Every structure is written in C-alpha cells, then in structure tokens.
C-alpha cells in the first residue's frame, strides 16, 4: 500500500526520536499517530531505559483517537517484554490500522514486531527513511552487534608521541581549548574509564566541566579498573556522581561488568598500559588523538607494547576527521576494519535535526 505522505510524517518521527537520550541501553525512537482524516492524534518519543516506549507515549496521548490511525515509527515496534510490555500488542489493542516504520530492529530479542502486527491484521510498511533512522541509532546498533559497550580511546601527545615527560609530569601537553574540547566529547559518553595507575600517578577528577569551569549537571560514571586499591582521598571520589572500582585487569571482563550496569559508550583515558590492553584485545572502536606541536624527546609513550614486531604488523587506523583546536590538532580515527563492520564515526551524538532532509516540512498541509 503506497503512502505519499509517509516520508513527511517519518521526518517528524525522526525529529522526535532525536530528543531521546544517548548513551542509553535503548535506541532513540519517535512515533507519530495520524488519524484517518490526516491529522496528528498523538506523538511520543522514548526518554530512556525504563520509561514508556515512543509508541506507548503516543498512544496515551491519542486515547480513543488511536483507533483506525496510522502509526509512523522510526524503529520496528518491539514484540518482547522487557522493562515494559511489547509495543506490538499495545498498537493492536488500541485499534491502530497501519504501522509504517523506518528501520528494522537489529536486536534479535526485540525483532519480529512486523510479523506480529501483520498476523493481527495490521497493514505494515517498512523501510521509509531507513538510512536516516539507522544513522540516528548507529552507535546503539553497533553495541547490539558487539554485545558490549563501545570504547573511545582519548590520548594527548607531543609530535614525537610522548604523553608525559621523563619525570612523569604530563600537565599540560595540550592547550586550554583542546582540554575544553575533551570535556565536550567526554560528556557524550556514559562512562569514563582509567586504570588504578592513572589514579595513583595523576589523581584525576574524571568529571565533565562546562566552559565556565563549573561541573556539568549530568556526569558520566567514573570507572577505575585494576587490582590496586583506590585511595579514599583520591579526587575521583570527591565530585558528584557515581564511581565504580572494577577489580580486574581484563578489559573484556571490565566491559562485561559495565554492560550489565547499562553502560553503552565508554571514554577511555587510561595510561599507556591500559590503552595497550584494550587495543591488543581489539576493544577500541574510536580514537581521538590530541597532538601538540611540541617535542619531549623522551618520557612516557602514549601506548605500551602492542606486540608489533615489524612494519607489516602496524595497527592501521582509518582517518575520519582532522581539526585544529586552538594551538593543537585533534585527529579522529577508527581502527581499520574490512567490510561493513566499521563503527559509525563521529562523536556519538548524531542528531538528525541538523540534516537538510529532516529540516523539510515536518508534515503535509491538511
């Protein structure tokens, strides 16, 4: 069944979806309910894990007007019971006559909604603005495939690859603008991870600060991994927000623990030993390198031994972006992966409201 208005309504659903949170265990989803007369009777978007799904919010807004309506949803309605009930059953019970969705659900635990709706006599159409919907939830979808949080490694080095001087001092390799840029990106993740060695050597706060120097209202989880105890007077304990000490040196074990805590996007700021452990395990998905036009000639390297014995074994990265930040350079790259399995680049805060396609009129005129 054709629907010439479907792209316009789906654009509105995508705009709603972009209001949802990331990082979050759940995808960002928007829903628009349009009655038989072509008017919106309900809208909704998902506000994060544990809250009503977009379809439920839209159905509650519509009430009895949902009967006979068409639901435009950015993700295939779920057919399983998690913290909330299946959206397919709610749509069927409300008497929705058609469901148009953008992206098929990549989560095998939640997929199958289209078949369930069709079996109940609901007309179903998928794939409307699917690419825009996939871009919006690219990082979430990647976590579903991997079954672990994504990991972004941040490093700051001199031109000769040093992260600290011979005496161990490292503040400050990069300038003020670069450090402020780090706080912006750090704030887009739901956990900041370092090793106990970094805590003992540098005593970092691991907080996200605003441009005026104040603490951001929402702080990522501060995570320290390693077998050594974290001193009770360490500054990591002092700021608002939660702190977790994972008593392990195994990156996979650490990520599994964080996954079960609901963490989906990790900002890795550990020292060279921890960075090498994650790189050797193949657990780094993004790299942000801040390079200062300076030379040390000695001191600590940015990463420890990676097991590379010859130039042929060099770890290759795919360059995504190079930006001058104040007097330094920020390089964003991702580990080279053959085929379609590369992680979506960018900061992980994809917001399709800036897309020209989605800035078109949100709905047809009626």
Describe the structure in your own words.
- There is one protein chain.
- 24% of the residues lie in helices and 22% in strands.
- The protein is an alpha/beta fold and 366 residues long.
- Strands 10-9-8-11-6-12-15-14 form an eight-stranded mixed sheet. A five-stranded mixed sheet has the order 2-1-3-4-5, with helices on both faces.
- It is elongated, with a radius of gyration of 23 Å.
Quickly describe the structure.
The protein has helices at 6-17, 54-62, 87-94, 113-119, 130-136, 138-146, 176-186, 196-202, 251-260, 272-280; strands at residues 30-34, 40-45, 70-75, 98-103, 123-125, 150-158, 162-164, 191-195, 221-225, 243-246, 265-268, 286-292, 300-301, 317-325, 328-335.
Topology:
Blueprint lengths: L5 H12 L12 E5 L5 E6 L8 H9 L7 E6 L11 H8 L3 E6 L9 H7 L3 E3 L4 H7 L1 H9 L3 E9 L3 E3 L11 H11 L4 E5 H7 L18 E5 L17 E4 L4 H10 L4 E4 L3 H9 L5 E7 L7 E2 L15 E9 L2 E8 L31
Parallel strand pairs: 3-4, 4-5, 6-11, 6-12, 8-9, 8-11, 9-10
Antiparallel strand pairs: 1-2, 1-3, 7-13, 12-15, 14-15
Helix pairs in contact: 3-4
């Amino acid at each position: 069944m054709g629907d010439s208005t479907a792209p316009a309504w789906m654009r509105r659903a995508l705009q709603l979806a972009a209001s949802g949170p990331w990082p979050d265990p759940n995808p960002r989803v928007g829903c628009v309910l349009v009655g038989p007369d072509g008017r919106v009777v309900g809208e909704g978007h998902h506000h994060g894990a544990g809250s009503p799904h977009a379809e439920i919010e839209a159905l509650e807004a519509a009430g009895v007007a949902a009967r006979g309506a068409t639901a435009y949803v950015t993700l295939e309605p779920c057919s399983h019971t998690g913290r909330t009930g299946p959206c397919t059953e709610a749509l069927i019970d409300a008497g929705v006559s058609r469901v148009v969705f953008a992206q098929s659900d990549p989560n095998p635990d939640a997929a199958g909604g289209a078949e369930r709706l069709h079996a109940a006599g609901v007309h179903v159409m998928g794939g409307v603005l699917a690419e825009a919907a996939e871009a919006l939830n690219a990082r979430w979808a990647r976590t579903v495939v991997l079954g672990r949080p994504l990991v972004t490694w941040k490093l700051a080095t001199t031109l000769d690859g040093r992260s600290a001087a011979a005496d161990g001092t490292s503040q400050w390799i990069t300038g003020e603008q670069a450090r402020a840029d780090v706080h912006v990106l750090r704030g887009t993740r739901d956990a900041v991870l370092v090793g106990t060695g970094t805590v003992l050597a540098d005593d970092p706060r691991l907080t996200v600060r605003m441009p005026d120097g104040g603490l951001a209202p929402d702080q990522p989880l501060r995570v320290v991994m390693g077998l050594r105890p974290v001193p009770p007077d360490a500054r990591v304990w002092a700021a608002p927000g939660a702190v977790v000490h994972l008593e392990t040196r195994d990156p996979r074990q650490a990520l599994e623990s964080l996954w079960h805590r609901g963490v989906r996007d990790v900002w890795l700021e550990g020292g060279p030993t921890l960075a090498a452990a994650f790189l050797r395990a193949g657990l780094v998905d993004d790299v942000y390198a801040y390079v200062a036009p300076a030379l040390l000639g000695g001191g600590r390297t940015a990463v420890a031994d990676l097991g590379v014995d010859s130039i042929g074994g060099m770890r290759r990265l795919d360059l995504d972006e190079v930006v001058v930040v104040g007097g330094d350079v920020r390089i964003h790259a991702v580990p080279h992966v053959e085929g379609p399995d590369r992680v979506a680049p960018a900061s992980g805060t994809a917001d399709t409201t800036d897309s020209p396609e989605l800035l078109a009129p949100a709905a047809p005129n009626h």
